């Protein structure tokens, strides 16, 4: 169904907003349109999201205080509307090596080719797992770029 989303308010403090995993199965219904899979929007200055961009690449972007604090955009494009994709994002900003702080796996294989690779600072709290925010599944909580899949 178009323009549907789920949301969950995170009222208590997570055990650790630096370490968590997001796993999902997705099947795209269209190509060539931005579609948000998971989003956290407090304001234009504080937000994070996992989405398919309008050119069908996968992205994770996070902003804190209006500055981009993490941004990964795959080189690979995802255009098969008949395929299921198993996406796993592993966040661990305690890692000393920056490229180990966010890892993306698609169908069990780690993505290593990124057109944009800006990793978060060490020990940065990640937006999808922060207290007193709302996590949206199927939208970013603001712009409406719903995942219609």
> How are the strands of the biggest sheet laid out side by side?
1-11-3-4-5-6-10
Number of helices: 0
* Shape by Cα distribution: globular
Helix content: under 10%
Order of helices and strands: EEEEEEEEEEE
Nearest-integer average pLDDT: 87
Strand content: over 45%
For the largest beta-sheet, the strand count, sense and barrel status come to: 7 strands, antiparallel
Rg on CA atoms, Å = 14 Å
Count of individual beta strands: 11
Termini gap? 8 Å
Which class of secondary structure composition applies to the elements?
mainly beta
Q: What quaternary form is this? A: single chain
The unreliable regions are: none
Would you spell out the secondary-structure blueprint of this structure?
Blueprint: E1 6-10, E2 19-26, E3 35-43, E4 46-52, E5 57-64, E6 67-77, E7 85-92, E8 102-106, E9 109-110, E10 114-118, E11 133-137
Antiparallel strand pairs: 1-11, 2-7, 3-4, 3-11, 4-5, 5-6, 6-10, 7-8, 8-9
């Amino acid at each position: 169904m178009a323009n549907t989303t789920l949301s969950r308010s995170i009222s208590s403090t997570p055990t650790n907003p630096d370490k968590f995993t997001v796993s999902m199965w997705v099947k795209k219904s269209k190509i060539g349109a931005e579609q948000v899979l998971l989003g956290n929007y407090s304001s234009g200055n504080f937000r994070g999201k996992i989405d398919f961009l309008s050119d069908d690449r996968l992205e994770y972007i996070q902003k804190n205080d209006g500055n981009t604090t993490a941004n990964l955009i795959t080189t690979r494009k995802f255009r098969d509307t008949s395929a299921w994709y198993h996406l796993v994002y592993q966040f661990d900003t305690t890692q000393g090596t920056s490229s180990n702080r966010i890892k993306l796996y698609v169908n069990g294989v780690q993505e290593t080719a990124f057109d944009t690779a800006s990793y978060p600072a060490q020990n940065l709290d990640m937006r999808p797992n922060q207290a007193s925010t709302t996590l949206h599944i199927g939208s970013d909580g603001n712009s409406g770029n719903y995942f219609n899949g």
